Protein 1
Amino acid sequence: MRKRALFAALSLGVAIATALAACGSGPAPDGAGDGTITMGFSQVGAESGWRTANTKSVQEAASAAGVDLKFSDANGKQENQISALRSFIQQGVDVLAFSPVVRTGWDAVLLEAKNAGIPVILTDRAVDTTVPDAYVSFLGADFVDEGRRAGQWVVEEYAGQAEPVNIVILEGTTGADPAIDRNTGFEEAISASPNLNVIASQTGDFTRSGGKQVMEAFLKAHPDIDLVFAQNDDMGLGAVEAIQAAGKTPGQDIKIVAVDATSDGMRALADGKFNFLVECNPLLGPQLMDLAEKVLAGEPVPARVVVPDETFTTQQAIEALPNRQY
Ligand code: GYE
Ligand code: ZN
C-alpha cells in the first residue's frame, strides 16, 4: 500500500487523490504500511502448454520476490478479466498485471485503474487503448517477428521450387495480439514468393482440440495441403493427430511450422513430426516482479520490454531438449 501511494504521488494529476488516500479515505488498505507489494494478476486461462508454464513462472517468481499475488484465471473470457481487474482495484492492490485475452475493449477498466492510482503492467500481450498512459510497461515477445521467422523458414524450405505450395494456417484466438501479429509477420515473409499460397486460415483458439478440429476440416476440404503454420504448439499437436488420423505422416506428407517451443512442441520437432519451431518464452515471472518493484519504488521502467526468442530445427531441438525449462 505504501509503495502504491508513492507511485501515485509521482504520477502527475493524481496528487490530490493521493493526499486523500494518505488521510485514509482511499481504497481499503491491504496490510497498509507493511511494505509488501500486492499484485492483482489476471491470466487468460489455461489454453496451452505455454500458458501453464507462464502461470507457474508468475506464481513462483511472486513467492520468490515476496510479492503477495492475487491470481485470477479468466477461462478465456474478456468479461471475466474485466471483473477480476475491477475486483483487484476494489481491494486496493498496489499493482495490476494482466495478459489480455484480446487487444481491444479495455478502455473503461484501464481508466478505472488509472483513476485509482494503480499502475498497470501488461504481460505477454498488448492492448489497443485510447486512454493516455494506461499502463506503465508492456513485457512480452515480438509476435510480428515470430511470425516473420516462421515465414522465412518456409521461404527457404521451398526456395527454388516453382510448383505451388499449399499452406494452411491455424490461427490463435481471434482478436488476440499474438494471433494478429503472427499473421502479419508470416504474411509479410511469404508475400514475395508467388508459389507460396495460403489456401485456408482459421482460428483453433490456441488449443489442441481446436487445432485438431480445424485441421480435420481442412484435410477434408483440401486433399493437397503441403504445410501447416500453427500459431502455437498445441494447435500444431492437434494437427499432428488429425493428419495421422487421415492416414498421412506429419512432418513428411504435410510439414508443420509452429510457435512457442514448449517441451511438447520440442519433442514433436525432435521426433520429426514438426519441422521448425519459433520460440516464445513464457518465463516472464521474474521480469514482471522486477518491473513491479521498480514502478512502486518510483524508479523509471521501459515502456516496452521485449523478451528475446530463438528458433529450432529438428537437430537443434534434439540438442536443446535435455536442458529445456518449459
Ligand atoms: O503463444 C499461446 C498462448 O500469448 C504468447 O498464448 C501467448 C500465446 C502463446 O495460448 O500458446
Ligand atoms: Zn503486438
Note: The pocket of zinc ion (ligand 2) is lined by residues 126, 143, 177, 181 (CB under 6 Å).
Protein 2
Amino acid sequence: MLSIVAPVYNEEASLPELIRRCLAVGHQQGERFELVLVDDGSADQSAKLITEAAGSHPDVVIGVLLGRNCGQHAALMAGLAESRGDVVVTIDADLQNPPEEIPKLLALSRQGYDVVGSVRLNRQDSLFRRLMSRMINAAVRRSTGVMMHDYGCMLRAYDRDVVNALLQCRERSTFIPVLANGFASRTAEVEVAHARRDSGDSKYSLWKLINLQFDLLTTMTTAPLRLLSVVGALLAIAGLGGGLLLMVMRLSYGADWAANGVLTVLAIVLVFMGLQFIALGLLGEYIGRIFNDVRERPRYVKSRVVGRRDPVGTAAQQATAALARVPAAPGLHDTATPRKAG
Ligand code: UDP
Ligand code: MG
C-alpha cells in the first residue's frame, strides 16, 4: 500500500488541484493507496476542503486536523502516524513538487531503497534560500555521512520500517529528512522538477527559517556542545603558553619587556577564560547525554531473527519487538546515525 502525506497550512488555493493530481497519480499505481492531508491549524478554508474531500473519498483521502499551527514537521509526523502504507511519500501541499514525480520515487523504493530523496532541478526559490540550502546540505552531508544533495526537498519516499523508527523518536523538534537518513540503510536520489509557488506565499518567515536551521542542527548533532570544551582548552593552552613565554622573556630581558605586567594579566585572564569554557563544555557533555536520553530514539531498525525453528509470534510482533526502545547511547556524536552509535 502507498500513502501520500502532505502538510497543509493555509493552502486553500492549491488544495483542490493537489488532491486531484495526487488521486490521479495514486490510481495509476494500481495498488491500494491513501492520501493523508494534515491541516496544520490553517486559518483559511483548508480544513473545510480536506473534510469535504475525505467525505467524498472515504478511506482514500484521510484528513488529520490539528488544533493549531504546530509547524510543518510536526504536521508531517502527525500524518506519518496516521499513514498505513508500506511506502510513505511526503510532499508539500503548495504544488512546488509535482505529484506526477511520485512514480519515479516509487520505482526506486520498490528496488529496495528505504529512503528515496529528491533533488530539485532548476529550483524556483530566491537566491538567499538557495544559498542557505547549499550551506546546510554540505553540513548535513558531513555530519550524517549520508550523501544526499537536497535535504530541503520534502518530496521523499520512506519505507515503513523507517517511518516506524521516526514515530518512535520522542523529540519535539525534528527535521524529518535528516532524522530519517539516520535510520536508512539504502538511500537513493532522483531528480524532480520544481515549480514556482503559484498561490500564496512561502509559509516560512525569516524567524521560522532560522528556527528550522536550529532544529536541523540539533536533530543532526550535539557536537556544538563539545565545541565549548575545545574552545576552552585552546584558550587555556594559549594562556599557559603565553605565560610561560613571558616568564622566560622576563627573566632574560627584564621587567620592561613584559609591558610592566599587562601581558601577564592577559595570560592569567586567558587561562581563567579557558577554564570557564572547559567547565561549560563539561556541562554540555552532560546536557548532550540528557538530550540523547529524552529523545529516546530507537537504537536500531529492521532486524530479523534467523535460526529459530519455532519463531514466537507473528512477523509484525517480531518487528515491533525489534524496534523496542532501549536507552539512548551515551556517545555525543551518535545522534542522527544510530547505527554508528557507541
Ligand atoms: N507548512 C505547514 N505548517 C507550517 C508551515 C508550512 O504545514 O507552519 C506546510 C505548507 O503548507 C507546505 C509545506 O509545509 O505544504 C512547505 O511550506 P512552504 O511551501 O511555505 O515552504 P517553502 O517551499 O517555502 O520551503
Ligand atoms: Mg513551498
Note: Residues 92, 94, 96, 197, 202 surround magnesium ion (ligand 2) (CB under 6 Å).
